[in-house]
């Protein structure tokens, strides 16, 4: 009979089978008294074995319910004296591997069970399911147990995607690395420097292909860190570069696509034409056009002075994309583009009248 009881204890309570003193079962709960049978413990500070008992106290960690009943575990824990005088720990409490941990209020198998529920159902639904099998827990606790899980070991990727991302509203840029084959992020670098990317790739010699954009920083880092890898452009950047080239081509010929204003019903004297010699769809004196021309001239003056694009962006408080647009545009007219161009407006019905009376408007005359 005793062998049968011991066998049941091993099946029902595998984590505490060796330390159980007594088990009492009633209609609501299973009461278990347990204590460690080891003669001593290892000091976590110096790693020296100690047999000198200082005191003992009771712990009541929550455990997984058994047979639909709540398990009330009463565990007596001993506190030992460290024999090493120079050790920073004078006393320490013993821990039962696989059962408890420092400051833990749940057994290890209950922690792993709740963490598995949280991974499958998240916080709120996981807490509701835990209450069904007899564990009262909040959704915040379930999420905290999930966040405490160690990060899974990520195998060395063979095809790495490299790109940048902005933080703090575009003031700081960092680097994200993605496993292209599994389509999962691998790591985040704290900056956007070639040296950081080269150091990361140097630790992973198994990288065979590097997918990147046309930024010279990533090209230098990939060449220095993984000279054996083939550098390619991914599908998104190919389509993105193609769309940018098509947009620039359309913007250069935007004046050819403008719709001519209909002729007035009654004959009227032909108004004087005030055409911009540059052919820009935005006339001189327009606030947006003037600001764009000034910024374009400033950027090219700084480029001619020998400043880098990054330094120009910091000086003029521009993002890297805006600075690249100004630097790549040969004339400011190539920058006069946007979604508002060519869209219908409430002024379309009055544009013939405005075109006829434009000279008077330019002389600040009133309607």
Gist of the model:
This protein is an alpha/beta fold. The protein is 35% helix and 19% strand.
Give the secondary structure arrangement, pairings included.
Layout: H1 2-12, E1 20-25, E2 29-35, E3 41-42, E4 49-50, E5 53-59, E6 70-81, E7 91-93, H2 108-132, H3 139-147, E8 159-167, E9 172-179, E10 184-189, H4 194-202, E11 209-212, H5 216-225, E12 230-233, H6 235-252, H7 287-304, H8 309-316, H9 320-328, H10 351-356, H11 358-362
Parallel strand pairs: 2-6, 8-11, 11-12
Antiparallel strand pairs: 1-2, 3-4, 5-6, 6-7, 8-9, 9-10
Tell me what the structure shows.
Strands 1, 2, 5, 6 and 7 form a five-stranded mixed beta sheet that branches. A five-stranded mixed beta sheet has the order 10-9-8-11-12. The chain is built from eleven helices and twelve strands. The N and C termini lie far apart (110 Å). 18% of the residues are buried. It has 367 residues and is of the alpha/beta class. 35% of the residues lie in helices and 19% in strands. About 2% of the residues have low confidence.
